[in-house]
Amino acid sequence: MTKTRKPMNKNLKIAVEYLAIILTAVLLALNYQLFVVENNFAPAGINGVATMIQYKTGFSIGYMSLLINIPLCIFAFFFINRPFAKRSLCFCLVYSFVFLYLQKLGLENLQYNANGQDTIFPALLSGIISGFVYGMLSRFNSSAGGTLIISKYINKTKPSLNFFWVNFVLNAIVAVVSFFVYAKVGENGVLTFDYRPVCLCVTYCFVSSFIADYIIKGTKSAYRFTIITPHGDEITADIFKKLKHGVTRIEATGSYSNTDLDMLVCVVNKHQLIDFREILKQYDNTFSFSEQVVSTYGNFATIKKIGGEPVKQIR
Q1: What is the pTM assigned to this prediction?
Q2: Rounded to 5 degrees, what angle do the CA atoms 93, 98, 104 make?
């Protein structure tokens, strides 16, 4: 008899997700305090606007985040999605209060300060951490507030607009504004513009988007093979024996020859591509093509053991 895992209790699952949201909020607050605020550049989104306001006026990012994100989360509650709004509000509250606490705590000895040098390390480090946070939040149906809520609403009302392009345009505006915000007055009284904050902002946006996208899609990428062959039984047996994969088999008819054929569909891991092709080479009159699969989903269960190795099949 096959043993199946008991599903996690729903309340426990929700509690674990909220705990993860709280931890990511703490991580993002640390990220801003250690890598962003001392290096004079604005990251993406509303937090980038808050960073520029703090740079110019001294008004804390934490307070600005509360002023902007609480109304946005209320808006999301009524016009986007209630669970999404609640989780986003939880993140924004924890992030803001932790950031305010870190400001009072004093972490000068731990902060990464490029000392005005042309280095992209602060943007790279903060972008990697932020991308991880944004990716995890997306998987938990949450967000860091700001432009992510705005772009999600635009995407809901105008589905034809690509969510990521909307977010890109909003972040590009932040990058352009930072060019003027971080301008300095020289000794001769002339305003000097610096491209460094813009470059750091663009680098941050690219890195954080790349990491977030990777986490959202997951690591379960694979390849789907579609095979047209008269050797359905033999190929199916080989795939099952050598690669430990099942095959979906569909009866087909060749339109040119009017002969009965088998169409086999199989999804394999990337590291099994060569072995899969070696199997197909053994059979004549066989045609196949492959497509990349971004993610695989399903409820997999161990059904039997072959040669001492468990074989997993989707249920």
Answers
A1: 0.72
A2: 135
